Amino acid sequence: MTWHAWLDDYYDLYQKGLVSPGIKESLVAFHELCLEVRASGNKLMLAGNGASASIASHGAVDFTKQGRTRAVDFNEPNLITCLSNDYGYENFMAKAVEFYGEEGDVLVLISVSGNSKNAVNAAKYAKTRGIKVVTFTGSAPDNALRALADIDFWIGSRAYNVVEGLHMIWLTTVVDMLVGKHEYSVT
Questions:
Q1: Rounded distance, CA 41 to CA 23, Å?
Q2: CATH no., domain 24-179
Q3: Which residue of 4, 53, 55, 147 is 20 to 30 Å from 113, comparing CA positions?
Q4: Which has the closest alpha carbon to 146: 128, 123, 166?
């Protein structure tokens, strides 16, 4: 295989996933939910592991600054290590939601596998509090996190960088929908 053929196959994964069935509906639904959160003065809470944590942090900043929708992430090392030490790593996100979540907030969880115990436990906890859950997952269509979503973004791929790249695109698309423009000043 030549690199050109490999790249054609690789970018085909992005093209197939970018506007896969149901994605536009999920984008519109998440945008509308963000408008509700903004109007009520509530917030988005974003979390993920590894690169998904980075996507969550990027999203929290952009939703707050550009999208004018308050957002926080749970990526502070002190928070992660404190809650993980006291409650177990599999529970740190759920405990963060317990401590920071309020009625009307929305939890956004990002996980390629959709089976990260800490994300699944956070979604389960959020549901007991009536907090809506938005998920960005990949891999198997029946992953545990996806099953708990009020709004679901899923790509049927195990290509981690492709899945994470699409998650970032979809998340920041909603930010741009809140702004209402494709191009704008960020200052």
A1: 27
A2: 3.40.50.10490
A3: 4
A4: 123
Neighbours of 181 (CB within 10 A): 10
- Least Cα distance to 117 among 82, 160, 148 occurs for 148
* Helix H or strand E segment including 173: helix 160-179
Half-sphere exposure at residue 117, Cβ-oriented, CA atoms within 13 angstroms: 6
Confidence of residue 20 (pLDDT cuts 50, 70, 90): confident
The residue written with tokens 């939890």 in the block is: 107
Residues 6+ apart with CB under 8 A from 89: 118
- Measured distance CA(69)–CA(86) in Å, rounded: 31
Residue 45 near residue 107 (C-beta atoms within 8 A): yes
pLDDT tens digits, one per residue of 26-48: 999 999 999 999 999 999 999 99
- Residue 167 structure tokens: 């998650």
Amino acid at 114: G
Write out the two tokens for 74.
Answer: 């749970």
